[in-house]
Amino acid sequence: MGELGFMGIPFPEKYGGSGGDTISYALAVEEIGKQCGSTGLSYAAAVSLGASPLYYFGTEEQKMDHLVPLASGTALGSFGLTEPNAGSDAKGTKTKAVKDGQEYVISGEKCWITNANFARTIIVTAVSDYDENGRPIISAFIVEKGQKRAVHYKSI
């Protein structure tokens, strides 16, 4: 699908995309899903969850470094939200991110993350602080597989 430009349908060519629109992307998800539901889901997760947050919220540098490979189809993305005791309820996130100098140390457990074993880039959610009422502030971190000290994971 990457070679055919499917991974970049909703993203501008500037970022390695195909320059399509949301309707074209939705039609692609629908047609792929008609043939194989699992493939449609994996495709939608890679684009909507793994790449779109970078496009909508990333800095220009993050887009060039991380979105371009995802949108051009040379890498796969994933989104790490789900946890064993919280499911996909973001408010229940227990994974922590603690600032250590210029870096964050992320510790916690994620599960059932679509494409995680194959993804080069994973957007990982973690509690990075608390507001004045004690409610968790959840941040999203870009983690590259193989990044020194970034993450340790095991396949199951």
UniProtKB/TrEMBL annotation:
GO molecular function: acyl-CoA dehydrogenase activity; flavin adenine dinucleotide binding
SUPFAM superfamilies assigned to the protein according to its UniProt record, in alphabetical order: Acyl-CoA dehydrogenase NM domain-like (SSF56645)
PROSITE patterns: ACYL_COA_DH_1 (PS00072)
Domain of life where this protein originates: Bacteria
All copies of domain Acyl-CoA dehydrogenase/oxidase N-terminal, residue ranges: 1-73
Residue stretches making up the Acyl-CoA oxidase/dehydrogenase middle domain: 78-148
PANTHER family: ACYL-COA DEHYDROGENASE, ISOVALERYL-COA DEHYDROGENASE, MITOCHONDRIAL-RELATED
Protein name, as recorded: Acyl-CoA dehydrogenase/oxidase N-terminal domain-containing protein
Organism whose genome encodes this protein: Bacillus safensis
